[in-house]
Design brief:
With 107 residues, the protein is mainly alpha-helical. It has one domain: Orthogonal Bundle (Helix Hairpins). It has helices at residues 2-7, 11-31, 35-59, 64-94. Helix 3 runs antiparallel to helix 4 (64-94).
């Protein structure tokens, strides 16, 4: 049932949507100064790649891409947990989440 549902939408549309989401994530990383927004943008880029992997995996009837996405999401969740813990410690010291303020922590 799921395999038939994913074939109703052309693969090009999944590629286009994934590309747009990835570009939005790149723009968020490049142009925003808030560390929380940067983490969200990185997650958006990871999810764009995961969407593309699942779409290609379903179109080729191979579950390897979906298994890889599962492990990627587990690693990304751990990465964000560690990153937010570091961000909380930085916020306690500097009272800001602006990444330009982090230059004061050098020495």
């Amino acid at each position: 049932m799921m395999n038939q549902a994913i074939h109703t939408i052309p693969l090009d549309w999944y590629t286009l949507l994934s590309s747009i989401l990835f570009c939005i994530g790149v723009m968020g990383v490049l142009f925003r100064r808030n560390a929380i927004i940067i983490f969200m943008s990185i997650e958006l880029m990871l999810n764009a790649v995961n969407l593309l992997l699942v779409a290609f995996s379903a179109y080729h009837n191979d579950a390897a891409g979906q298994v890889f996405v599962f492990f990627t999401m587990a690693v990304a969740a751990a990465e964000i947990a560690v990153g937010l813990a570091i961000l909380v410690v930085v916020y306690r010291n500097t009272k800001s989440t602006d990444i330009d303020v982090l230059n004061r922590l050098k020495g």
